[in-house]
Design brief:
Blueprint (H helix, E strand, L loop, with lengths): L1 E5 L4 H17 L15 E7 L2 E10 L4 E9 L8 H15 L4 E7 L3 H9 L3 E3 L11 E7 L5
Parallel strand pairs: 4-5
Antiparallel strand pairs: 1-2, 2-3, 3-4, 5-7, 6-7
Protein name: N-acetyltransferase
InterPro entries: Acyl_CoA_acyltransferase (IPR016181), Bact_Acetyltransf (IPR050832), GNAT_dom (IPR000182)
GO molecular function: acyltransferase activity, transferring groups other than amino-acyl groups
Amino acid sequence: MLIQRRPPTDPELAALVATQQRELREADGGLDGQVFMPHDDARYLAGVVDGRTVACGAVQALDAQAAEIKRMYVRPAYRRRGLARQLLTALEELAYESGHTTVRLETGVYLPSAIALYLSAGYEKIPVYGEYVDNPYSVCFEKRLPVPA
């Protein structure tokens, strides 16, 4: 998979984010009617296979030390190939290059494969934070990034 930086206005990226949000609403029973569009202040990566954009994710600064990984998504036909793990690693590298020492993320309790990915990649469960505090379906994770010697 080729991983590319994309602006939040990229039409292929926006289409993937919209698909991700629709799939999440279906998975949580449509309880949250919010539609999220790409954040202008987030840095996006897109995963491309055979010329097709099939995965996306973003890093958004929370503060000087911490960044949040957002909008992780792989099209269903491309899952179970290790693409999410590749993308997660690239997003962690992007956060690290920006000077962040910690990455956090939120996912839903109804996404066991996502939870398994994050746990297997060294993330630890933390209390829900920020905008997720009142969402009973949210589960949050954190990982410390390596510090340069």
